[in-house]
Amino acid sequence: KQEVTQIPAALSVPEGENLVLNCSFTDSAIYNLQWFRQDPGKGLTSLLLIQSSQREQTSGRLNASLDKSSGRSTLYIAASQPGDSATYLCAVRGGSNYKLTFGKGTLLTVNP
Amino acid sequence: GAGVSQSPSNKVTEKGKDVELRCDPISGHTALYWYRQRLGQGLEFLIYFQGNSAPDKSGLPSDRFSAERTGESVSTLTIQRTQQEDSAVYLCASRLTGHYGYTFGSGTRLTVV
């Protein structure tokens, strides 16, 4: 059974800092990995999706990497802003099914 | 529509009552998922619909939970005889077959008192 772990559970940083969120998964036979953002009382917003054959994806100040063999992904946020404050969720889609398995998320607070 | 729409956004119900949650997926998205997010927990898969195929109900936690979808349209998730442990945010997502990304709705926050 796939398990996804996100570390840290919470992170508080001053504005302008670069930061890294970590995600690990137990079964490396994944189809893809997706990072989402969730704001309080809102649904999930997709940030980046990495196919199993890819090593990284970039969108603006966000960069996500994937090391499938070691079961790890990182989300790098450059020059953090207060508007980045949210919960960040990592989810993997299994190689033989279509379901997403989610981590519990990292609650990020960027202080002005 | 432009996004996945869920209603109601909030629902407070008394223990033992039945509730019905609605999800309106993006037009043309054949795949539809229901997830549950309990406080402090990750999202749990509940059920998956793909076109007219038999749904994957393997994530439904008990027989009090059921869901329906007609073709590629609206889906409803019904919880009968609600219990306090059913309190959670219920999220719906849709996906275009052959594509990789999932689009989530804003969820229904269910509180059972």
How is the secondary structure organized here?
The complex is a heterodimer of chains A (112) and B (113).
Chain A: E1 4-7, E2 10-14, E3 19-25, E4 30-38, E5 44-51, E6 56-59, E7 62-67, E8 72-77, E9 86-94, E10 100-102, E11 106-111
Chain B: E1 5-7, E2 10-13, E3 19-24, E4 31-37, E5 43-50, E6 65-69, E7 75-79, E8 88-95, E9 103-104, E10 108-112
Parallel strand pairs in B: 2-10
Antiparallel strand pairs in B: 1-3, 3-7, 4-5, 4-8, 6-7, 8-9, 8-10
Q: Work out the helix count of chain A.
A: 0
Considering residues with a beta carbon less than 8 A from a beta carbon on another chain, report the largest interface and each chain's count: A-B, 23 and 25 residues
Strand content of chain B: over 45%
Structural class of chain A: mainly beta
* Number of helices in the DSSP assignment of chain B: 0
Give start-end ranges of low-pLDDT stretches of chain B: none
- Characterize the largest beta sheet of chain A: strand count, sense, and whether it forms a barrel: 6 strands, mixed
State the oligomer. heterodimer
Low-confidence stretches of chain A: none
Report on the structure:
The complex is a heterodimer of chains A (112) and B (113). Helices cover 0% and strands 60% of the residues of chain A. By secondary structure, chain A is an all-beta fold. In chain A, strands 2, 4, 5, 9, 10 and 11 form a six-stranded mixed sheet that branches. A five-stranded antiparallel sheet of chain A has the order 1-3-8-7-6, with no helix packed on it. In chain A, a hairpin with a 5-residue loop joins β4 (30-38) and β5. Chain A starts with a strand and ends with a strand. The model of chain A has no long low-confidence stretch (mean pLDDT 93). Chain B is an all-beta fold and 113 residues long. Chain B has no helices and ten strands. In chain B, the strands form two sheets. In chain B, strands 2, 4, 5, 8, 9 and 10 form a six-stranded mixed sheet that branches. Chain B is globular. The model of chain B has no long low-confidence stretch (mean pLDDT 92). Classes of the chains: A mainly beta (112), B mainly beta (113). Chains A and B meet through β4, β5, β9 and β10 of A and β4, β5 and β9 of B.
